[in-house]
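Students often ask why we bother predicting the structure of a whole assembly rather than each chain alone. The short answer is interfaces. A chain on its own may look different once its partners are present, and contacts between molecules only exist in the joint model. In this exercise we take four input lines together and write out one structure for the complete complex. Read the inputs first and try to guess which parts will touch.
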Amino acid sequence: MMEHREPQSKTAAVTVEVRYAETDQMGVVHHSVYPVWFELARTQLCRQTGFSYDQIEASGHYLLVTGLTVDYRKSARYPDSVTTECRLERFASRGLRFTYRVTAAGTLLARGSTDHVWVAAATGKPCRVPAHLERPFALLAPTLSEP
Amino acid sequence: MMEHREPQSKTAAVTVEVRYAETDQMGVVHHSVYPVWFELARTQLCRQTGFSYDQIEASGHYLLVTGLTVDYRKSARYPDSVTTECRLERFASRGLRFTYRVTAAGTLLARGSTDHVWVAAATGKPCRVPAHLERPFALLAPTLSEP
Amino acid sequence: MMEHREPQSKTAAVTVEVRYAETDQMGVVHHSVYPVWFELARTQLCRQTGFSYDQIEASGHYLLVTGLTVDYRKSARYPDSVTTECRLERFASRGLRFTYRVTAAGTLLARGSTDHVWVAAATGKPCRVPAHLERPFALLAPTLSEP
Amino acid sequence: MMEHREPQSKTAAVTVEVRYAETDQMGVVHHSVYPVWFELARTQLCRQTGFSYDQIEASGHYLLVTGLTVDYRKSARYPDSVTTECRLERFASRGLRFTYRVTAAGTLLARGSTDHVWVAAATGKPCRVPAHLERPFALLAPTLSEP
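Now the answer. The structure tokens for the assembled complex follow.
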């Protein structure tokens, strides 16, 4: 039987360099890039469950995005080093909410959130959290919620 | 003196074909593409003021995105014909909110919104709505709000 | 038995409006966008075989890109209407070459080409052109080549 | 007077993790992403001249892309760690050619090249290499070519 220990950290952070292709003619990073950075940090947080997102997909499940919010404060610019932090804010049997903070050189650039449901690849339909992922994800949540 | 007539329609709609590059390995359009479609429809709605967005920029002003929400209902797939409708939901002297509906073959795929502030290109700072744009944009709002 | 008639045209052309997200801080469309436009025109040309690219994939085959060239002449700008034409330049049993011309208001912006091989989805390996596609694609080629 | 020393290395390498958004429904990284990775590595190589690309732009010059080739060998997949190496292959007074190798876990995924001309931001016209950049870039070239 596999034992799921409390993850060492409940936050993941990924730092990337702004790509020239990500800027627009306003001279700043286009706002559609932030959800891509969110996803990078979410991928990193998932690893802390012991199951990487590609393993989750390989086992026949998707975490489909059902909602997105971004609150933009300051513009990111080429070639800033941008750090995106991700936390699991809410975890329930059928859905999750991750929250994000994007910073550069200590300055807050944006906050955001994504909502997700589990989807079974075989049916394309929403489903309950796969049994083997329930506890690892619950341990990432702020308090051990009833999944 | 320029006369600003009520625009013929307060909604803009743009139909595009899903690009293969917009899909991801889940087999659907990646969620970061929807804000790009929103922008296409917003560009179209701006034209209905009589001032295209590139003209607005050329006159020294930006409409900076400060907020984004997307509520995803159904996945878009390659090569769907996807229609994005845009409305100006709220118009005030310093900010605007546009709302969006994305459909394919009559099925709702997503709803969303973007918040914006006017920024003076010369200073990079938020500013009041440029005088020549105040009435044209107000006329796009649901009721003629006090700008 | 299906009859394959000479397609009405051996060229496909797709016109799209430049998206703000496609510009970069140089004030022009980023060069990585052109392959995406190429793909839109290629999708359109494939339809002229009577088999759309999504049908080709559904039947278990991919047209994998193995080579890309772009020769950039003039910059595309927001919100230009950009037309991409696609032709099948070369067709052989294991590979194809498409060529492209990108124009805006009659001015040549870029030329390019893509090379492709057929891949069987089941194995992920290169394969011969699927039998049902051999003649339809051959008919798109400049002269009816020996496939 | 500034002294330009031989750069410590004539190659730059940047490693990034494949982003989910970069995949397509074929289950691999879309081919239009490679030029973006090329640009990341080129940005890194430019730094080795002592003048970062954003400094070059700030001083009023662009390195406009005039040509692109990519030869794809193996597909990149989410979440591979992908390394892109960049070299300055050719340097002349009006143009440059960079070459690229993309690898993952030691396996070659792609090779490519980009051609560039110097453009004066003030005029938007091609120009000679800016005087202060001539020697730093020449030192990156394989042999000290006559600029």
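Check your guess against this: Chain D touches chain C through 20 residues (CB under 8 Å).
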